[in-house]
Each structure stands twice: as structure tokens, then as C-alpha cells.
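**Sequence with structure:**
===
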Amino acid sequence: MTNKDYRFKVSIYDTTLRDGTQAEGVSFSVYDKIRIAERLDILGVSYIEGGWPGSNPKDMAFFEEVKGKKLKNAKIAAFGSTRRASVNVEDDDNIRKLLEANTPVVTIFGKSWLLHVNEVLKIKPDLNIQIVSDSCAYIKGHHKEVIFDAEHFFDGYKDNSKYALDVLLAACKNGASSIVLCDTNGGTIPSEISEICRKVKSVIPEHITLGIHCHNDGDMAVANSIVAVESGARHVQGTINGFGERCGNANICSIIPALELKMGVSAIEKTQLKHLREISHFVDDLANLNPNKRLPYVGESAFAHKGGMHVNAVSKNPATFEHVHPESIGNKRRVLVSDLSGRSNIMMKIAEHNINVDEKGNEVKEILQTLKRMENEGYEFEAADASFHLLAKKVLKSYTPFFKLNGFRVIVEKRGKDEPCFSEATVKLEVLGQQELTAAEGDGPINALDLALRKALLRFFPEIGDVHLKDFKVRILDSKDGTAAKTRVLIESGDSNETWGTVGVSENMIEASWEALVDSVEYILLKKGKQIRHKKPDKS
């Protein structure tokens, strides 16, 4: 699609670095914020809200640091409030710090709901309008692009539409180039958003850009943002992955592809759309959060197919169960294998793993039967692709283990009431015809077992030196059995190139963990594709 093919352009205003950091459990260093800003600029957003310079030293440090960065697409915006009622605008410390941030864009928010004017600010309604007017005019007088965020606008409009509109018009007359309607409490529904946006669009001057800023308390922030665009908004605010206070903000990782792929509206650089999933995960990583696999478009499960009939249809034509091409936003199709699987699941999964199989023989049936039997025993292969790979190889009799377990022992000891637990593991293996007996201490029994296994194998297979455990999950399968219940352990491992999952099941959690650990190591050794079984061990 060329620029001529688009219906119109919408400016994407990203507030991940400000509103997004108000989310519970989310915090970014100054360096993190710079890296995110650089990625957002490459993505092609129009504005990046860097923070509130009047609120904390970190945000002011970001504005100082970002001055030295040459951004190609985005303008940096500083965010803050209108002047205080008790001081003149030129004497207001918040306004002064907004200007000291030295950004080309300043976004200020003001009250548009009489409830806040009367009960929070406790000032007369006319004074609030004067505050908005003074603040916009003063900042505009310093040659800044002024964006006015009308806080709680939709609630304010439903309470007193005339007053809410008067606040907007005051900002328009005093230098604001964009008026952003904020659903700050996140409780407005799409039909209300549409009706009110159309009314506002008919009232404000034509040269003023109408914007939308939605929170997700009613789980409608993305839908509300889309209907606002349909109703005249040309400026959309949101955050990566929907980060934000309470239930979050509108997720631009959903808004952007909806505009681009479904509505023919230009939102970012078209060539960058395929990097959307990448930046979604990048921001999660810097926030030290596990990516939400169920996010639309960019989530790991967004194009994951499990039901046998669904997989069969997708194998014939992906459009049967996919609303867009996953590759268009940098995602990929995934076929899950479980007790709901059919032959099509297994065939697509085997092809994904580049395993040769006779389609006309009984091999696929044998793999499927083995899979369903093991899932009935408590195994789960949806998040354990590596274990499925090994399972298929074993059923096809095309796999030989790299080592043999002769035994292991794990000791957990507490040497005093106030002392931490001590964990030690010993493993006895047969590797390339040699007996190996090693021991290791760890932070817990599973960590000790993992370290002992690697210690035993490393001189034979230096390939595992780069492998590390990334995540460890334990699930009790039948709680009615109490402490004797069967346990499922899912392990996520990775190296510098990829991540893979393995699974183990047993009434004994340590044995289940051992099974998953062994699969993790054996998978990557198999994946390396080297004749490592015949190498002489490193004598060091």
C-alpha cells in the first residue's frame, strides 16, 4: 500500500515512558527510556511523551539525555499540568520546568469535569477556564507546539456538555494545536465515544487536530480509540502493550495494525509494521515482565491453533482462522499439540521441526497416540516444543540419548533456625562410555541438580556452556491427593540464539524436574546437529 492508497493519516502519540510507567510493577531507568524512545522513533510514531519534568529528577534527566539523539520520525513531548490557581502562569514552577525540558512539544492537561473543578481544585468554574487559557497561551508564546489533554472529558461532557466544550474552546483560542479527549476513568463505551467525538469535531475550529486518550478500565480502550478515529480523531494516544495505571491504557500494538491493516489508515512507517512484535517484547524485557502471550496481534498465542479441525482448515487456507497475516506484524503461526490434536496438528508440527516422516504409514498415528497417552498422564506439550521434538524422534526410533543416568541424589539441609537451607545434588552418568560422578551446590534442590548435570556434561559437550534456565513452573495436577499429588514441571531454557520449553511429570517434583532438565540439554545437543557423540572429551 502506498501513501496515495491511504484514506488519511493518524498521528500516534506514545506515552509508554510517562503514563505507561504508572502501571503497577513497571519502572524504567533513564537508559531504558532512551532505548525505548529510539525504538519508538524507528517504529515511526509521531510523538514520544518522555515524562513529567516537574515530578521527578529521572524524567528531567531523560530530557537532558535525549537532546543528543537524532530522531527521524518522532517529536519529544514534555507532559505536565496547567498552572496552579494560586500563582500567575509565569511564576508557576511546573510551567517553568516544562519549558526547561526544552522539547519541541509540550502537553498539558486541565480539568474539564465540574466534579474535579468543584471538589478537587475547589475553585470557581470560570477560574479553571482562565487557568487553561493562561497555560496554553504562555507555552505557545515560547514557540512550543501545545497539545491540550482534556482530563476526564467524557465524564465531564456527560455531566455538563457546555462547560466541557467551553474548556476545549479556551485551549483552542489560546494556542493549542491539538485537543485530546481523555477517557481518564476508562468507563465510557464506544457508542458514547463516537457520538461525543462527532459533536466536538463539529464545534472546534477546522485547523485544530482532534485527539483521543483512553484508559482500559472497561476493557474497551482499543475499541474506543478506533471509533474515535472513525468519528474524526486524527491523533491517538496509547502505550506499548497497554501499560498504564490500574487496568492500563489503550494498547498501540493493537491500534496500529487495526488502523493500517483493517481501515487503510496510515499510522506509522509501513515498512516498520513487521517490527511491532519485536518492540512489544523489547519493552517487556526492559520492564522485566514476561510477555503476555494472549495479546492480540503481537502475543505468542495470537496465531496459535490447537483444535484439530482448526489446524486442518488453516493448513489448507490460513484465512479460515486468521484475521490478518501473522508475518505482517512480525508474528508467526504456531500449531499446538495436545489431547485435542488431530493428524493435521501432528503433520504441521512435524514439518515445523523438520522431522522426516512417512505420511502414508502409521508413524503419524503412533506419535498422536503416544502424545494423547502422555497428556492423559499429565504431560503438556503446548509450551514444551523441545520435549515434543524428542518425543517424535523417540517414537520414530531415530534418536539415541547422549548420556545415560545411573542415579542422582539431592540433599536439602537446614543447619540452624536462622540459617538458609543448604542444597546439594550428586549425579552419576554414563557419557560416551565413561562414568561421570559430579556434585554441585545450588540455591535450591532444582538449581543444584541443574548445575550438577551441566558440570558432568560440560567437558564432553561444551555446546551447553551457553545454555541457561530462564523460567521454571510447577503445577500440582490433582490437589485432592495432597502432598502425594502428581506434579508437572515446565522449564524454559535458552542460549544466545533461541528459547525452548521442556516438560516433566512425576509424583516426585525433583524427578519431574530432572526429566525436564534432561530434555532441555538433549534437545539443544540434538539441535546443534554435530557428531558430538563421537568427539573425544576435553581433558580439562
